[in-house]
Amino acid sequence: MIAYLVNLATLTTIFAVLATSLNILIGYGGIFSIAQAVFFGVGAYAAAQVALHVTPDLLVASAAGAGAAALLSICLALPALRVRDEYFVIASLGLQMLAVTVFTEATPITGGFGGLVGIPPASLLGLPLTDPNAMLAACLGFLVLVLVLTRVLMRGSFGRSLMAIRDNDTAAEALGKNVMVLKTLAVMLGCAYAGIGGALYSAQMQFINVESFTLDQSVLIMAMVIIGGTGTLIGPLVGTVLILLLPAALSFIPGIPPTEIGVVQQMIYGLVMTLLMIFRPGGLVTLRTRRQ
Amino acid sequence: MIGRRGLMIGATMASAIPALTYPDPAQAAASPYMLGTLFPMSGPNAEYGEIFTAGADMALAHVAADKMLRRPIVMKAVDSLATPQGGAIGMSRLVNVDRAIYVLVGFTGVSKAAAPIGMRAKSILVNGGGIGPDLAGLTPYFWNVIPLANKEVERLAPWAVAKGLKRIAAVYVDDPYGIGVVSSLKSSFSKAGGKVVAAYPISPTDQEFAAIAAKLRAVKPDAVYFASYGAQQSEIIKQLRNNGVTQQLLSPSSVDIPSVHALPQSKGLIYTAQSADWNSPDPVTRRFVQDWKAKYHKDPVPYNQNYYNAVLLFALLASALEKQGKPVNGENLRNQLLAQRSFPLVGGTGVFDDNGDISLPIVIKQFQAGGKVVKIA
Known about the structure:
The structure holds two protein chains of two kinds.
Chain A: H1 2-28, H2 36-53, H3 58-80, H4 86-105, H5 107-110, E1 116-117, E2 123-124, E3 127-128, H6 132-155, H7 157-167, H8 169-174, H9 179-205, E4 207-208, H10 215-228, H11 235-250, H12 261-279, H13 284-291
Antiparallel strand pairs in A: 1-4, 2-3
Helix pairs in contact in A: 1-6, 1-9, 1-10, 1-11, 2-3, 2-4, 2-9, 3-9, 6-9, 7-9, 10-11
Chain B: H1 4-14, H2 17-21, H3 25-28, E1 33-39, H4 46-65, E2 73-79, H5 84-96, E3 102-105, H6 108-121, E4 124-127, E5 142-144, H7 149-162, E6 167-173, H8 176-192, E7 195-202, H9 210-219, E8 223-227, H10 231-242, E9 248-251, H11 258-261, E10 270-274, H12 283-296, H13 302-324, H14 330-340, E11 342-345, E12 348-352, E13 358-359, E14 362-367, E15 373-375
Parallel strand pairs in B: 1-2, 1-3, 3-4, 4-5, 6-7, 6-8, 8-9, 9-10
Antiparallel strand pairs in B: 10-14, 11-12, 12-13, 14-15
């Protein structure tokens, strides 16, 4: 049981990094992207290639993942930030669809639909992370780093400017803020985080393929952020825990026939999500803050 | 007083309570052998999960009725969602919480994600659904009880050429399964004196094939071979026929699912499958078919057979280990498989190679009117 919980906790930690990455865009920057799984995937593939051909060190792999995702994010940011709101959503949707095709077709790099198998177990500064507890500790360390950096940046001038743009970009521009640069930096930061999440994911799973980086995954990440509460440090973490652990908890319901198990679980899961959005439209953490 | 927020949190947490209170099966009952299934039980691929589970369930009933083992078998089902992530979480749960020593699995992405976890836990994973050639030898603890796709194509090519189907156009999903099939198709038809004159890749999510039908009409092949899976196969058949492709359709065994049987346009389609002579006098096959027809009032499909065989294989291996006084665990099951190699299964004697991959005779079948299937070679 403990090993299962550790595995679940590790995945939750990785997705918390990912949710935090999207929170930078949606919560602080007001940039509604539904292509976050693309940067998650770019980070995962870059890190997997580093692990397969250079070193399994998680720091090096994460740096490669973050760098690759941040670089690619410029491709999204520069042209797409000229549009906003629903038009940006459509632009990011286009990128998501394009990326899935590229992930499927670029077989020498991504392994195509079959993916990359045999990714070696990760190490950190020479210490092997073969023990699941060690891997969990390493992922928690990355999550803490991401959270601390986010808190520092969002409390500084960069974060305040970004939130000003989110609330009213015309007013912010009139006050001398460079909207394009700030938004581009926010996209790069958020995507670099997603790249780190991808690197951790490939190290944990030891297998990646395009099925983990589809539109469904992007929507799932967005649900984590929105259900947890956008624009808060803790909200996306709460959303991640809820969305990842609820289906796992539902799998323990006894007495369901094997052929009905999926349907029953999906119905309960969907019902809980719907109720949460009815009673917590602003997200779990945001509403609590407002009430207080 | 409990407010709306309290009620919501209570309702949410209530679903998590079983996770804390449901006893660890290994502690609660040390005696049963824990087996697991990691099939898609929801979403568009749930049809496969039901088919796979039905075969395994019948084998469990037969093993229990025959008292083949000294301890009962408990089968735990987990929904893989047909995704690698779902497969990894599900496999982790099966081996770490339920202590499953033998897990049935079916989809390529799920299999590949679950295989490293099975390897670490030394739990056997048995595939009876995926036929991609890249599933061979995934890990020493990953076995296939279904002949992989390349074996099917090798059987089909000489027969098709002899029947005058020499110029073949292929439509295939662009994944390891489809790519593996087309690669085998090219080499096998070339050897047999035929030729693959065109090959059109499609995405696993494609649902529109009118453009491919137009290309096929222009190429004018003797036959069209398509390699896909799930509901997409019905769309391919329907749209090719509705768009004027009249040539003979050929396919591997993935086409043998109820939704294709029910499709009027599938009449005449020829496909390969592992030997499944439901009229065979072999007692294992006869019993399986008789009981299947009695329960479901129709013939079984090869997927039913495969997962029946997967559970029967476990029972045969565990029985042998019990007689030797050895503990039934993944490592001993693997050693026993490699020592014994051949087993009386549904469809005949199954022989396993060093990778744990089965060899079974391949037959050629054809859809008749009303979804009926006849063996033609």
